[in-house]
Amino acid sequence: MSESTLVARGDAPFDLFVYNPSASAAWAFIVLFAIAGAFHFIYLIYLRAWFFIPLVLGCVGEAFGYYGRTLAHNNQRAVGPYILQLMLILASPPFLAATIYMTLGRVIRTLDAEQHAVMRTKWTSKLYILVDVACFVMQIFGSAMQGSGDAAGAAQGMHIVLGGLVFQLVVFILFIIMAATFHLRTNREPTRISSRPGVEVLWRRSMWVLELYYWS
User: Cellular component per GO (predicted)?
Assistant: First the structure.
């Protein structure tokens, strides 16, 4: 089949995937992200926790990204499903991370523990979200190049995506260090609010959830 015919059909002249995407695994992730997104949407409405909106958007993006993988099953040359899954699966985690960054700032302010933070909370969320946006742009740009149908452009796009992922990984590690440092300092020197019986359990649980999310 000629290259022009493949392009007209929306197919690349080469395999975009080096493997056949699993439809069953993709559907499993669709269900998981859909449930998580619906659960958090209900709670953000009930609690008016609007800073969880990025997390819900991230879950929606991941679900649609894995839907793209179901469309790519047994059709590794289809450009549309490839771009859909690549852009959404890579671009959605920064939305999930943005909520985590904002959550840490709110925990610090709620406990009146600014003195234990590595960085002032007014800058923490802004800085990390700015970095998230930079990673998002890099991954979208690289993903678009990978789906261009040109082998050289796809290779260059892959390097851009990998650069964005490495940058994001470094940011994740720095955030874990900041969160763990705050956790340890507040354990050693509790504030008046953090030492209250009911609050003590809640803030410790919140910190473990934040750290578990990043290690996962």
Answer: membrane
Cα–Cα distance for residue pair 178/209, rounded to 1 Å: 15
Helix then strand then coil, % of the chain, to nearest 5: 80, 0, 20
Q: Count the neighbouring beta carbons within 10 Å of the beta carbon of residue 89.
A: 20
Per-residue pLDDT of the chain in tens (216 residues, 90 and over written 9): 444 444 444 565 556 677 788 899 999 999 999 999 999 999 899 988 888 999 999 999 999 999 999 988 877 778 788 888 888 888 888 888 888 888 888 888 888 888 888 888 778 777 877 887 888 788 788 877 776 656 677 778 888 888 888 888 888 888 888 888 988 898 888 888 888 877 777 787 778 777 776 666
Cα 69 → chain centroid: 18
Please tell me whether residues 27 and 124 are part of one structural domain.
no
**Domain boundary, last residue among 68, 89, 110:** 89
The verdict on residue 5 lying in a domain is: no
Into how many domains does the chain fold?
Answer: 2
Residues 6 or more apart whose CB falls under 8 angstroms from that of 3 comprise 13
- Closest to 66 measured CA to CA, from 37, 97, 45: 37
**Residue numbers of the domain that contains 143:** 92-216
Q: Domain check: are 202 and 168 in the same one?
A: yes
**What pTM, to 2 d.p., does this model score?**
0.76
Residue 114 lies in a domain: yes
